[in-house]
UniProtKB/TrEMBL annotation, chain A:
Reaction catalysed by this enzyme: (R)-pantothenate + ATP = (R)-4'-phosphopantothenate + ADP + H(+)
Compositionally biased intervals (Low complexity): 58-69, 123-138, 150-163
One GO CC term, this protein: cytosol
Subunit text: Homodimer.
Disordered: annotated segments: 34-218
Annotated organism of origin: Enhydra lutris kenyoni (northern sea otter)
Annotated EC: 2.7.1.33
Full protein name: pantothenate kinase
Originating gene: LOC111144971
Automatic annotation (TrEMBL), chain B:
EC number: 3.1.3.-
Species assigned in the record: Enhydra lutris kenyoni
Higher taxonomy: Eukaryota, Metazoa, Chordata, Craniata, Vertebrata
Primary location class: cytoplasm
The protein, known as: 4'-phosphopantetheine phosphatase
GO CC annotations, alphabetized: cytosol; nucleus
Function: Phosphatase which shows a preference for 4'-phosphopantetheine and its oxidatively damaged forms (sulfonate or S-sulfonate), providing strong indirect evidence that the phosphatase activity pre-empts damage in the coenzyme A (CoA) pathway. Hydrolyzing excess 4'-phosphopantetheine could constitute a directed overflow mechanism to prevent its oxidation to the S-sulfonate, sulfonate, or other forms. Hydrolyzing 4'-phosphopantetheine sulfonate or S-sulfonate would forestall their conversion to inactive forms of CoA and acyl carrier protein.
Database matches in Pfam families: ARMT1-like_dom, Fumble
Reaction(s) this enzyme catalyzes, per UniProt: (R)-4'-phosphopantetheine sulfonate + H2O = (R)-pantetheine sulfonate + phosphate; (R)-4'-phospho-S-sulfopantetheine + H2O = (R)-S-sulfopantetheine + phosphate; (R)-4'-phosphopantetheine + H2O = (R)-pantetheine + phosphate
């Protein structure tokens, strides 16, 4: 939701410029070539303090059963709480499975080839109920920057731009907002979802001008910024945020095709943000840019640039918000798309402290859309997805690229602080199968308690040096060898931490061994649950993502081994280079879609 | 992943404590005749099993050699009662901490009178560590048995042989245990054994099972990790810590991530998003209690989740949990149950076992005893010799918990004949013998416990009186009093100790305790006398009945049955009368009876039925000796026989109160046959068959009846079941649904019960039921 809370307050508009971009392929995502040079940075405010980088969002909830129950949208509506949210989320219902990705063959259950025309057609033929109401705060077309706000009847004033509709510009379909969440077992087609709400075509709508109470100079700048988009684009800066239980993941799109004119028009604030982010690799004490993950020369929403991947601990969130306030981020009139539990937890703080309205997004939607997108654009010419060849042979085990062009069905295991396991049948048909509370947070938490370490890196470093067999009780420790009757090797772990029942052994153990045992225990357990889910769902590809895997080769190889060994080669473990950032990317994609919608 | 049998190498097992003083003769009972040993050595506990013969006294009745004239003599008893020694088989299980193993082996060595046994079956993770010690001390060869095989064998055995073995844990109910009736078909099921690791086994038949998975996160993880985190060494202490902790101080909850305002995002805010998630972020100390609690939740949830995943994959809905992680600890059972309910959305049932600690030892024993065909027999838990389930709250009963932590006993009597379901049960799987669950019903529990306490003096007196020639009778009777009193006190605190508490279990426990101290049949003399008196009255009663018209006679027969049933020494109201007024007789009893309409009165329907075609065969469960069986039941039987109905008269195999036993019934029938041609010819022509129930209880469990009886019922096509007496027709079977017509009659000889049923003392129950078509 685009909300501009400028000086005068109460200005709501959608920034999108209506569209030329109803185009086909050429407007779709594509990897653009050049454009790279980095601008010199200016220092910036610190990003927070004393945090422990850790795994991703707390998507992994212990409750399996909770998966199918009411999601945020419903509950928000039920409680009649932030109406705007409810509105907005409902409005995001797409006409059909969406997010068309360049070069991706049509897939999924419908068999229908999605084209913009296609959707357009539908939109015309079947104007949904929402189409009838004038969209409040609808993005103006033809560069009419200012007009008074019109609100949908009944819509609270401050949610102005809420009633937006899925429509495509820039080659985007809006992604499915609430794809059918299946709570029942077994795969089910997406067809049983509620009839899609239909997009409202901005072209056909009266475009109310955005409200304007600002000074003439500000108006002017604003208009220019709007114009500079020329297409239906959100104004810079482009962020996607995933606020997890332990770690905040932030993706930032740095445009590299800025024209001189644009550069001139660029407000100082915006410039300083861009420079600060792109010229540093660390922010404050705990913010880090994962330079090696940067996606270069990417075309997003018609602009070329680089996508940066930044993370900082969730406990620094308040510092971050404070900074947003100090830097008057709200004057940029941008929308902050955020997912993860923190989007809910910190929403009020964003609003109260930084005068920023968060656009909250479902974390599982974002995860899947982000993952599909990143995989589709590739990793700077290399594949995003990989697996381990010969996973059961340590000497021959090696990383190999994997083509995820036809990814369905897949079991998606998102390992953040906790773990969520999703069965994904198509880009808009998935269900949360289960989750476990034994995740990255557990690994780090136990490691901190057991070894006194403070960071994920420290913990992993220790684990790399340790030997878990001193800590764990193995099958051979009990049976003197293999337990043949059940085909258990003597080297299999019979009891994690089992040797620690003995005081003598407790006294003789090293911290490194403890860290290793913790890592192995948590990893094997996730592997075991994932394997059972794959069997129950009858899926043979298991994609592991999440920041638990960051710099964590031990776990990846263990998972690859476990999937292969226990399934006798039937299951394949897949991994992705941008492990923990898909939620944030998915949130960024939502920013574009939102804009399209207007 | 595979360790089972309550294994796990405890730190405690390494240093043996020889200094303890055992109260050994109370623990290793009947050791002198022991043969066949089996041992299950886990990480912290050793379970020793042995099979022994128990010599105890039984009351025997023997018919005099009648020449006809004896019957004329007024003061001659109708038969001879003698107390003889009998040898029965009993399985003993003793559970103790590994620290005592050497002391225990020494004790066994010293007391084991020469035995042919050469081998000891051993199982459990610790078996090989103690192999040499066992071989040296006992001079027995150690045969290692597969842990899982033993476990499954043991599990099948207890599920089949011990009523109320399995229970579900229900949070916030009082008590928390809900016992399951034994399902006739126990297969298939999933057994999740939580030793130091977790083994998940699918059991399909007696011999077929499959290890389908496991997890290394089990009891050893709780113990090991718990010890590291809290510096607490002992498993039980860790659990105790956990029971006091707050996991939310350590765990990252959904609401911690989503913020308090949005805790209902479809995931309950209090659900755990990341176990120990807070300990990575907060730079502070965490309390031992909180960490232990968090650890317990983490492990229980994980095990529950895996169990559900496996149960779903194999389409099973019953999951039994065993292993030392459970060991009756309520906090563990609570978290596991929660987890199973959560992950399976209620589709999978988490079941626990009263004797889960013994499964391995039982299985190992059965393996070694295969040539004895232990599965051919039925077994019964001996309440007198078994410790029972420990208290759910350690605070409530610390001594009990401490004791069961050191020595815990289970004794099972081998029943000479197998027990089976009555083939006429409408639905054996849902049959519950007992009418009132005293675990459930606190006021009833209080009443009955007090009632049994108050009756104890009388029972002791009766016991002493029954053995006038015995020098130590008084001493033994006193021991009996203490034992039974102790049991009653245990049951007051832990009503679930032996499964569902019922009037039946209270009565059975008393019988077991009496037998324990060699009072096999305290009422034998009373029964003898009463049978003699009643037999003398028989001809007169028959003459009176025969003089009546058909319709009058039917009512008189029923009234006779009911009046006879007044003579019940088990009922306090009656025993007081019988003690004080020896002249109290059949006619006096009739006077006591409630006039029609009775409290429950379907007599008219019954009469109507009698006007129709005769039944093919009636199965009658008799109650008391004396007037009841002779002047109440036999005339009724005689009438049925006259109608052309065959009769199976089923009496208890062993004595209980003044109930007529099978042996007594044989003599009584013989004596009646001598007086009555109808009974005489029926016996000769096998139209009247006497059989035993397989029970020695004043109550009746239709799911555990002598196999011979079941065969007879099938062969003869029984189409009427008559159940007589308060114990068999009111305390039990009042709600039993049968596939044929049934008659349940009793006189309520307890004013409290009468009041509960809406009547008063000596109210009459006459319940005639015809199954719905």
């Amino acid at each position: 939701m685009l909300k501009l809370v400028g000086g005068g307050g109460g200005q709501h508009w959608a920034c999108s410029v209506a569209g030329t971009g109803l185009g086909g392929k050429e407007a779709a995502f594509e990897v653009a070539r050049p454009g790279d040079q980095r601008e010199a940075g200016c220092g910036g405010p610190g990003w927070g303090s004393a945090g422990i980088p850790d795994s991703a969002q707390g998507a992994g909830m212990l409750p399996a059963g909770a998966a199918g129950r009411a999601r945020g949208r419903q509950s928000a509506e039920e409680r009649g709480e932030p109406v705007g949210e409810g509105e907005e989320r409902r409005a995001r219902h797409p006409p059909a499975p969406a997010l068309r990705l360049l070069n991706r063959k049509p897939q999924g259950g419908s068999g229908e080839i999605k084209t913009p025309e296609n959707d357009l057609q539908r939109g015309r033929l079947n104007p949904g109920p929402r189409a009838a109401a004038p969209a409040p705060g609808m993005g103006d077309r033809g560069g009419r920057p200012e007009h008074s706000a019109t609100h949908a009847p009944g819509a609270p004033a401050d949610t102005g731009a809420a009633a937006v509709n899925g429509l495509l510009h820039n080659g985007f379909h809006p992604p499915p907002v609430q794809p059918p969440r299946l709570c029942n077992r077994g795969p089910a087609g997406g067809g049983e979802a509620a009839p899609p709400r239909l997009p409202l075509l901005p072209e056909l709508q009266p475009q109310p001008p955005p409200p304007q109470h600002d000074s003439p100079a500000k108006k002017c700048r604003l208009r220019r910024r709007m114009d500079s988009g020329r297409k239906n684009r959100p104004p810079f800066p482009w962020f996607g945020m995933d606020i997890g239980g332990t770690l905040v993941k932030l993706v930032y799109f740095e445009p590299k095709d800025i024209t001189a004119e644009e550069e001139q028009e660029e407000v100082e604030n915006l410039k300083s943000i861009r420079k600060y982010l792109t010229s540093n690799t660390a922010y404050g004490k705990t913010g880090i840019r994962d330079v090696h993950l940067e996606l270069k020369n990417l075309t997003m929403c018609g602009r070329k640039g680089n996508l940066h991947f930044i993370r900082f601990p969730s406990c620094a969130m308040h510092r971050f918000i404070q900074m947003g306030s100090e830097k008057n981020f709200s004057s940029l009139h941008t929308t902050l798309c955020a997912t993860g539990g923190g989007a809910f937890k910190f929403e009020k703080d964003f609003r109260m402290i930084a005068d920023l309205q968060l656009h909250k997004l479902d974390e599982l939607d974002c995860l899947i859309q982000g993952l599909l997108y990143v995989d589709s654009v590739g990793f700077n010419g290399k594949p995003e997805c990989y697996y381990f060849e010969n996973p059961t042979n340590p000497d021959l085990c090696q990383k190999k690229p994997y083509c995820l062009d036809n990814p369905y069905p897949m079991l998606l295991v998102n390992m953040g602080s906790g773990v969520s396991i999703l069965a994904v049948y198509s880009k808009d048909n998935y269900k949360r199968v289960t989750g476990t509370s034994l995740g990255g947070g557990t690994f780090l938490g136990l490691c901190c308690l057991l070894t006194g370490c403070e960071t994920f890196e420290e913990a992993l470093e220790m684990a790399a040096k340790g030997d878990s067999t001193n800590v764990d009780k193995l099958v051979k420790d009990i049976y003197g060898g293999d337990y043949e009757r059940f085909g258990l090797q003597g080297s299999a772990v019979a009891s994690s931490f089992g040797n620690m029942m003995s005081k003598e052994k407790r006294d003789s153990i090293s911290k490194e061994d403890l860290a290793r045992a913790t890592l192995v225990t948590i990893t094997n357990n996730i592997g075991s649950i994932a394997r059972m889910c794959a069997l129950n769902e009858n899926i043979d590809r298991v994609v592991f993502v999440g920041n638990f895997l960051r710099i964590n080769m031990v776990s990846m190889k263990l998972l690859a081994y476990a999937m292969d060994f226990w399934s006798k080669g039937q299951l394949k473990a897949l991994f992705l280079e941008h492990e923990g950032y898909f939620g944030a990317v998915g949130a960024l994609l939502e920013l574009f879609k939102m804009t399209d919608d207007q | 992943m595979a360790e089972c049998g309550a294994s796990g190498s405890g730190s405690s097992g390494d240093s043996l404590d020889k200094s303890i003083t055992l109260p050994p003769d109370e623990i290793f009972r009947n050791l002198e005749n022991a043969k066949r040993f089996a041992i299950d050595i886990g990480g912290s506990l050793t379970k020793l099993a042995y099979y022994s013969t128990v010599q105890h006294k039984v009351a025997r009745v023997r018919s005099f050699d009648y020449s006809g004239k004896d019957t004329e003599q007024d003061h001659e008893p109708p038969y001879e009662v003698s107390v003889q020694e009998e040898v029965t088989a009993r399985l003993h299980f003793v559970k103790f901490e590994n620290t005592y193993i050497e002391a225990c082996l020494d004790f066994i060595k010293d007391h084991l009178v020469s035995t042919e046994t050469k081998v000891i079956q051993a199982t459990g993770g610790g078996a090989y560590r103690f192999k040499d010690l066992i071989e040296e001390k006992l001079q027995l060869r150690v045969d290692k048995e597969d842990v899982m095989t033993c476990l499954i064998k043991g599990c099948n055995f207890v599920l089949k042989n011990i009523p109320h073995e399995a229970f579900v844990y229900q949070k916030d109910s009082d008590p928390e245990f809900r016992f399951q009736t034994n399902h006739p078909n126990i297969f298939p099921y999933l057994l999740v054994n939580i030793g130091s690791g977790v083994s998940i086994v699918k059991v399909e038949t007696e011999d077929r099972f499959e290890w389908i998975g496991g997890s290394s996160i089990g009891g050893g993880t709780f113990w090991g990790l718990g010890a590291l985190l809290t510096k607490t060494k002992k498993f039980d202490e860790l659990l105790h810590l956990a029971s006091k902790g707050q996991h939310r101080n350590v765990d990252m909850l959904v609401q911690d991530i989503y913020g308090g305002a949005h805790q209902t995002l479809g995931l309950g805010g209090s659900l755990i998003a990341s176990s120990f998630g807070k300990s990575a972020m907060a730079d502070r100390e965490f309390s031992k209690e909180d960490m232990a609690k968090s650890l317990l939740h983490m492990i229980s949830n994980d095990i529950g989740q895996l169990a559900c995943l496996y149960a779903r994959l194999h389409a099973l809905d019953r999951v039994y949990f065993g292993g030392f992680f459970i060991r009756g600890h309520p906090v563990t059972m609570r978290t596991i149950t929660y987890s199973i309910n959560f992950f399976s959305k209620g589709e999978v049932q988490a079941l626990f076992l009263r004797h889960e600690g013994y499964l391995g030892a039982i299985g190992a024993f059965l393996k070694g005893a295969e040539q004895d065909n232990p599965n051919q027999y039925s077994w019964g838990e001996n309440y007198a010799g078994s410790s029972g389930l420990m208290s759910s709250s350690p605070e409530l009963c610390p001594t009990q918990r401490a004791r069961s932590g050191t020595f815990d006993l289970l004794e099972m009597d081998r029943l000479e004949r197998p027990l089976v379901n009555l083939p006429l049960l409408l639905d054996p799987s849902s049959y519950v013998p007992d009418t009132v669950d005293l675990t459930d019903d606190a006021p009833a529990r209080k009443y009955w416990l007090t009632c049994f306490e108050e009756a104890l003096d009388g029972v002791v007196k009766r016991a002493v009186a029954s053995q006038p020639g015995s020098a130590d009778a008084a001493e033994r009777a006193e021991k009996f009093r203490q034992k039974y009193w102790g049991k009653l006190q245990t049951l007051r605190h832990q009503p679930f100790a032996y499964g569902t508490l019922t009037v039946r279990s209270l009565l059975d426990t008393r019988e077991h305790c009496l037998n324990e101290f060699n009072f096999p049949d305290p009422y034998s003399k009373v029964k003898q006398k009463e049978n003699g008196v009643a037999l003398k009255c028989f001809p007169r009663v028959i003459r009176c009945l025969d003089a009546l018209g058909w319709e009058e006679r039917q009512l008189a027969l029923v009234k006779g049955l009911l009046a006879g049933n007044v003579f019940d020494w088990g009922a306090k109201a009656v025993s007081d009368v019988l003690e004080s007024d020896p002249q109290f007789g059949f006619e006096e009893a009739k006077m006591k009876l409630q006039e029609r309409p009775w409290l429950v009165d379907s007599y008219s329907k019954w009469l109507q039925r009698l006007k129709g075609p005769p039944h093919k065969c009636a199965l009658i469960f008799a109650d008391n000796s004396g007037i009841d069986v002779i002047l109440g039941v036999f005339p009724f039987v005689r009438e049925l026989l006259s109608r052309g109905t065959e009769v199976i008269l089923a009496c208890n195999s062993g004595p209980a109160l003044n109930d007529v036993t099978y042996c007594e019934s044989l003599i009584v029938a013989e004596r009646i046959a001598a007086m009555d041609p109808v009974v005489h010819s029926a016996l000769r022509e096998e139209r009247l068959l006497l059989t035993q129930t397989g029970s020695s209880s004043p109550c009746l469990d239709l799911s555990r009846l002598d196999k011979g009886l079941a065969v007879l019922v099938r062969e003869r096509g029984a189409d009427l079941v008559v159940i007589e007496g308060m114990g068999r027709a009111v305390h039990t079977n009042y709600h039993a649904a049968l596939r044929c017509e049934s008659l349940k009659l009793a006189v309520i000889k307890n004013s409290w019960l009468a009041e509960r049923l809406g009547g008063r003392l000596f109210s009459v129950i006459f319940k005639y039921e015809v199954p719905a078509e």
